[in-house]
Amino acid sequence: MKAPLLVGIALLVGCTERIQLVGEPIPGLLALDVTPPHAQIEITDLGQPAQTVAYSATGHFRDGTSRDVTALVDWGTDNPAPGSFSEPGAYRTSGSAAGHVRVAASSGDVVADAQLTIVVTATIIDGAFPPPPGADELFTSGVSTVDPLRSPAVLYPANDTLFPQDLARIVFQYGRGMMNDAFQLTFDSDVLHLTVLTGSDRWQPDEAVWSLLARSHPGASAVFAVHGGATATPGTIYAAEPTVMRFTRSAPGGVIYYWSAASGGVMRAQLDTGTAGTLVPPDGDARCAACHAVSRDGRTMAIGLGGEKLALLDLTTQAITTPAPEIPMGWATFSPDGTLLLVANKGELTLRDASTGAPVGPRGGKLELPGHAIATHPDWSPDGSSVAIVIADSINNMDLKGGSIARMAYDDGAWGAPEILVAAGGGMDNNFFPRWSPDGQFIAYVHASSGSRGARTAELRLVAASGGPPRLLDLASHRVGATDGVVDLASTMPSWAPTITDGIAWLSFSSQRPYGAVRPMLGPSQVWISGIELSSDRADPSFAAFWLPGQDVTTVTNNPVWAPRPTTD
Fold first, then answer.
1. How confident is the model at residue 8 (pLDDT cuts 50, 70, 90)?
2. Residue 36 lies in a domain
3. Among 220, 247, 274, which residue terminates a domain?
4. Which of 116, 158, 213, 352 is surrounded by the most beta carbons within 10 Å?
């Protein structure tokens, strides 16, 4: 629900700021001093005019003299969100972010810096669901208690969720606790102290406030806490277990294509929009569009269209090509250069031309695996040297059993023998949906103790592409709200973002987990996203997952495929 601010906040624009005033270094300059060396700005009204700090730079020269060079040096910062230099030495706040700023004055190779901290302290009254009269006095004591019946409970986001910059605004959700009719939400860090008063069990910041939260904490965290109380019986307020929210410094970008039961087709979504639209089938086309794969340049999509028949969609023109004769397709993967397509259908792998669908290589393009093994779920490595597959006991395009994760070398039309990376353990042990990380060093996959279709026990795992012991992505797979180890969430169908940003590889997947107060119980699968710190030596390199904004929460959405935005170059 949208909760409008009582005052507006200017949206942040721009990137790292630098004032370039002179083309050449100041002759004879040896050193610089910047004054003040430390400064702090307190913003207590989100609508107040911009505040300024006047900096001066003193230059020290080879001849032993010193003089003011404020107007002659370059002025810049390492964090453009909280503000910028409007003129030499004049720092001006943006009003759209708090934060720590390194101010730098430079001339050629001579640099001096100063430290600036912008602290924002503000209170917002939820205009959509305002608290009842008396709520502002209810929380003034600052004393709270924890009660299993009366305390609220944070439901979303989960504790230790990692969010990228430029994500569409989320909905904060929490259980009310018995008898509570007023809630105080706080967002706290060393630079931000934001309070929200509301009467609802959910609150959605407007775009400016969500931007304030994210851009005030690049590479840092804030604590989200909820307190509840009853205005009819004031005196005691009840506290929820607080939740840590983490933010990266940048955004992963790209487009997420996922299947929706509501449209019977593939949807197109971007993290920064909070909306999704039907990509295929086009209006007036009644064919179902289901399993899909996208080339690494983001320009072409292979789709199982109209009953698992291969179709090729040009994502720059939206033109659909259907090869003739019809080609059956369950799953597919493009070679990194986009010229080849490895198609899986009911356990059989066939190499095809990605433009025409024509078979490539001997035996009509069909791969012969040792021992007449059957395989599916192919995924081509970023460098083109290998394909990850699942070798299984039984396979149809919707289900498989007894799956083992394997890697198969490829070199200019020649295929190597499959190398098993994760072997099925017998019985109902099952491994499937292998997907290469963007750097080609790891493979994410799904493990379950049942067939792959609708597997409630499905969880995400990670194995080195060179082999070794798998790691469970535990937080991504099993954390809901503040609760760890939640089982049977059906976390499956992983897909990586195209690039790694700030050392984080982003992994999208589908899951039937609850979505806060909006959907407090298990339900139809939805698309979720977790940050994975691939370089970490932690047993679990994942963070808790967030819900992809813009989905229809009442229907099944699954099979996300994350790809670059297509270009027309």
1. very low
2. yes
3. 247
4. 158
Whether 93 and 101 have beta carbons less than 8 Å apart is answered as no
pLDDT of residue 289: 86
Both tokens assigned to 8: 């507006």
Give mean pLDDT, residues 15-29.
Answer: 62
Burial class (CB in 10 A: 0-12, 13-18, 19+), 234: middle
Q: Could you tell me which of 335, 280, 320, 259 has the C-alpha nearest to residue 560?
A: 259
Report the pLDDT value the prediction gives residue 233, as an integer from 0 to 100.
Answer: 87
Mean pLDDT for the chain overall: 93
CB 338 within 8 A of CB 354: yes
Cβ contacts of residue 284 below 8 Å, gap of 6+?
A: none
In the structure encoding, which two tokens stand for residue 505, read together?
């590889």
Q: Residue 307 — very low, low, confident or very high, per pLDDT cuts 50/70/90?
A: confident
- How much is the pLDDT for 491? 98
Query: 374-380 and 38-43 as β-strands: parallel, antiparallel, unpaired?
Result: unpaired
What residues does 66 pair with on adjacent strands? 60
**Enclosing H/E stretch for 476:** helix 474-478
Full residue range of the structural domain in which residue 141 is found:
126-247
Regarding whether 532 and 491 lie in a shared domain, the answer is yes
Report the C-alpha gap between 89 and 416 in whole angstroms: 64
Choose one of 61, 89, 116: the last residue of a domain: 116
Closest of 442, 378, 421, 375 to residue 402, by C-alpha: 375
* 111 and 136 part of one domain: no
- Report yes or no: 55 and 76 within 8 Å, Cβ to Cβ: no
From 439, 388, 384, select the one nearest 410 (Cα to Cα).
Answer: 384
Largest pairwise CA distance in the chain: 86
Residues 6+ apart with CB under 8 A from 324: none
Domain count, the chain: 3
Detail the DSSP E strand segments found in 215-254. 221-229, 237-239, 243-247
Single-letter amino acid code for the residue at 144: S
| Cα distance between residue 337 and residue 355, in whole Å | 12
Q: Tell me the two tokens of residue 234.
A: 């004031």
Residues 32/107, Cβ–Cβ less than 8 Å = yes
Residues 51 and 79 in one domain: yes
For residue 85, give the CATH number of its domain: 2.60.40.10
The answer to whether 382 and 336 are in contact (CB under 8 A) is: yes
198 falls within a domain: yes
Residue 47, domain member (yes or no): yes
Q: Which residues contact 233 (CB under 8 A, 6 or more apart)?
A: 179
This prediction's pTM: 0.93
Length of the chain: 569
pLDDT of the residue at 569:
56
pLDDT digits (tens, 9 = 90+) for 243-294: 999 999 999 999 999 999 999 999 999 999 999 999 999 888 878 888 999 9
Residues 101 and 137 in one domain: no
> What is the pLDDT, as a whole number, of residue 47?
84
Residue 210: how many other CB atoms lie within 10 Å: 16
Residue 519 lies in a domain: yes
